[in-house]
Write a structure and sequence with these properties.
The complex is a heterodimer of chains A (227) and B (768).
Chain A: E1 4-13, E2 16-23, H1 26-40, H2 42-46, H3 48-53, H4 55-70, H5 77-98, H6 107-110, E3 122-125, E4 131-137, H7 145-157, H8 160-168, H9 174-181, E5 185-193, H10 198-207, H11 209-214, E6 219-226
Chain B: H1 4-9, H2 14-28, H3 33-45, H4 47-61, H5 73-89, H6 95-106, E1 109-113, H7 120-130, E2 134-138, H8 142-155, E3 161-164, E4 177-182, H9 184-187, H10 189-192, E5 199-204, H11 215-230, E6 235-240, H12 248-252, E7 260-264, E8 271-277, E9 283-285, H13 290-293, E10 298-300, H14 304-310, E11 315-318, H15 321-325, H16 328-332, H17 334-337, H18 346-359, H19 372-377, E12 381-384, H20 390-401, E13 407-410, E14 424-427, H21 435-442, E15 456-461, H22 467-475, H23 494-504, E16 508-509, E17 514-515, H24 516-521, H25 525-538, E18 539-540, E19 543-544, H26 547-552, H27 554-572, H28 578-595, H29 600-611, H30 614-622, H31 663-697, H32 700-711, H33 716-723, H34 728-734, E20 738-741, E21 746-748
Parallel strand pairs in B: 1-6, 1-7, 2-4, 2-5, 3-4, 5-6, 8-15, 11-13, 11-14, 12-13, 14-15
Antiparallel strand pairs in B: 8-9, 9-10, 16-17, 18-19, 20-21
Helix pairs in contact in B: 2-3, 2-4, 3-4, 4-5, 6-7, 11-23, 18-20, 25-27, 27-28, 28-31, 29-31, 31-32
Amino acid sequence: MSGYNIVDHQMIDKHIIFIRINPTDIALTLKEVFDSLSDLAWISAFDGHYLQTGYKTRAELSIAYIAANIIGPNDDAVTSESGEYVVSELARKTVVDYLKYLHIPLGDLIKEKEAVNHGFDFFSRNLNEVLLFGEAKYNKRDNAYGTSFEQIIRFENEKRDHSDLIDIDRFCCENSKNNFSKGMKGFIAAFASKKTSTPKLIAGIKKNRHFIAASKFTEVICIAVNI
Amino acid sequence: MKDVIKNIQNNVDIDGIFSFVLNNLYRNGPVSVTDMEILTYLSLYRPEEFKTHKNSILNYMAIFYKETERNTLKEVVFGQYKRYIIDTYHKSYTPIQADIVKGINSNKCFSFSAPTSTGKSHVFMNLIHDCKNDIVVIVPSRALINEYYLRLSSAILNKEVNILTFIDKINTNFATKNIFIVTPERCRELFRQKELFNVDLFLFDEAQLSNEDSKRGLYFDSIVRRCYKAFPDSKFVFAHPFVKNPESQIEKNHFNRESSYSIQYTQKNVGQMFLCKDENWNFYHFGIDTAIMGARKQLADFDPISKTIKNGGSVLFYVSKAKIYKGGILAHFSRYIDLCPEIKGSKIDSYIEQLSHYTGGETSPNKSHYSLLLALLKRGIVIHHGSLPLQTRIIIEEFTKEGLCRMCFATSTLEQGINMPFDVVFLDRMESSKPLSVKNLIGRAGRSSIDSKFDYGYVIVSSPSRMGNFRSIMLQDEILDTVSSLEKSDKHDEDFNEFKEAILNDTYSDEYNLSEKDLEKLTSVNIEKIINEILDSLFNGNNLISLSDINEDNIFKVLLYGRFETLYSIYLGRDLERGESNVLNTAIKIILWKIHEKTFKNICWYRYAYASKSHEREILKKSGMSTDNIEAAFFTEYSDIPNKNHPVYSLFPIGTKAKDVSYDLIMYDTYDYIDKLIGFKLSDVYYAALLKFYKKNGDERANKLAKYIKYGTDSDRHIWMLRYGLTFEDIEILDEHIERIGSDQITFKSSIINVPDIQKESIQRFLN
């Protein structure tokens, strides 16, 4: 079960892809993220008994609540942040499953001791061995591509893609790193999309100045998640 | 990540530092000294940014007794675990506390170590509360007995539970369960009456005592083994601070490994920041891990001690006993002492009154019994060391717990006393030879609160040159021996070797606290002759002669003292050297005062009057003459005997003016004699000799004197009262309201209703 359906796939330009997806099981996606985050927390290693006996039912309750509230009326901080995780994870899965790009776990799950500034949310490598840096944004009311592209450009300016390289180093081949050092890199803007039609959405994206700025990179992928 | 202290101070890469430390905290927990340092610096220097991360930090630390929100999925991971703990243990435990409970519940023997602020006492209190049958708590010092006693007494109000600081079977008509809080030495009484008790749990707290290369360490191990042998179905728990290998208790005492478990917890609940000061009292930050925190010390633009005192916090100064005794603390720390004006109010007056009543000291410098200890206490300044009378310590510790202490000057004995944290720990000295003690003191820096904030404390070393040594102590693992001294073949002195032999051969007498060989010596013909002479001198018929009878005839007095000394010499198997003889003579004098029911205060006054020649000075004063030329009398200071090499010297060196004799020093010295020499050594020897003599010859005078020496009274009724935990002060008030007392219960007269509650505290549990 992938937890989503592809509902649109277009080329905005020869190096710019637009994909739109429909989540089919938010709870499943969230659970995968939540399980991975739980595995990383020190208490999981500290108390094996908890994982065996106490974790599952409680996690299901937490996830059910969060899943129900991402699209529900409540807007507490946990659910907004969860929304961003869902967008990240679904976008990441889309490039891996659908485009057959490299599987690299979510950024939060792979950060190592020497991590510095908070960087991109997820990563991949395309079939031409170009590294891709993904930024996910969730907004309850509006299409969130604007904030996603804004952050991509800001992070690129602040060279956070360079510092993220430390974290994803073990997933990258030499060629992709060489390409990166020559400036060959791409970005993935993942964002929550609302009821706006795809043509209208693409028209809006094309006008966005941060998108225009991002267009100069080797590859750009826009992933709209209907959430 | 490098130069973190400098970067935080200079506001460089703060996001990166937060990201680094949050990531570590989430994955590893609050186990790294460096992570906790970083959080402390961020909290101090970047409070605004800290605020935005505070919730995550508190969640990731899993200090679930603090109220936090869950705003992120990662926080939910911890929130969920918190709920699991509450559902499982019905308490808001931290993961460590919950794991301790689990460790105890699932093993017959559980040994663990944990940093100072883990909250293990809270777990123990609940555990003791929930036990169905008897519990024995074994701690290394009487100060800790007292601390447990107070906590348990207030936590367990059920009158069917006896809480006792000796092993005894009392209140049998009502008690369904006993909680004994004892030292290893007092625990021996358990074995003589083991069929009377059903012990569910033995709890050995501060169990690192077993590592002491002394008779106490040896004795500790022997008690552990005897408990295991006598109560094989009981549960055994060993708790230590900071020890790397808590499994040593299981190994060295041969517990069944299949039903035993050990673990070292390193999670911390509070942050710490480390500083040094230079000779101009400038303060500098330094880190433990120089690669991350920076190799150079960084100037701090504030004085953490003044800041803490002004903000109503508390500071612990770890100093040498000599600095306390010689008054060095006053000169050296005057800048902080001056920040503490006298505290007004009935609370503090009540504490001073209690102390004054017990010690006989006074707070006015014009008074002859002027006590610096008391005068400083009025300003919220506490002095704490091993020679502080236990009763005084109890009062001072309550004073400290009530939040009245601003500063505390303490020696390392504090680790066995006040179990409370401070905002600042200042290490005026650092004994590399006692790393565990130093670590224990360092662990006191940082008060853990239930407030929704990150708690931290400062640790300060007295000179930049000590940074290296400090880092080594912090990084050093404390390893306990895995082989007991009982099994080692290395030889100590004769006393130790004999003791060990008696323990191993099971010939050590629980009744007398002496070895079989000792008892043989104390029943020799020569001893009997001396005892007869002592009894003939001290008794007129069946009654003790008065002190004035003893004192008015100097020759008689010298002869009497000589007989006590001879008895001790026979026990020792040799004559005493001059230095030893002086110490023993002083001890005998104190024993005689105690036999004649002189209080601690009285004894201090007598000794002070002698040392300061107060009578002589008074006469001169009255005739208008100066007393400046009068020198203090020769005054033998307490020292441990036997020790052939102990020199002859006076506590007050030649040239000390009589008027400058310190009342505090006399008080401390008197307590040392009573506690360390008489209490721990001489009373066992004299008691055994006299009781053996009584048992053989039926001389009632010997029985009487033996009881006086052991209990301070020969009244069986009063001895029962002591066994129920009453003090002589309590007896003075409550005796007249007691109809009858015995092992079954205390029957009170109806007049007990009229006694104010505060005076009934000691018997509240027995009022049915």
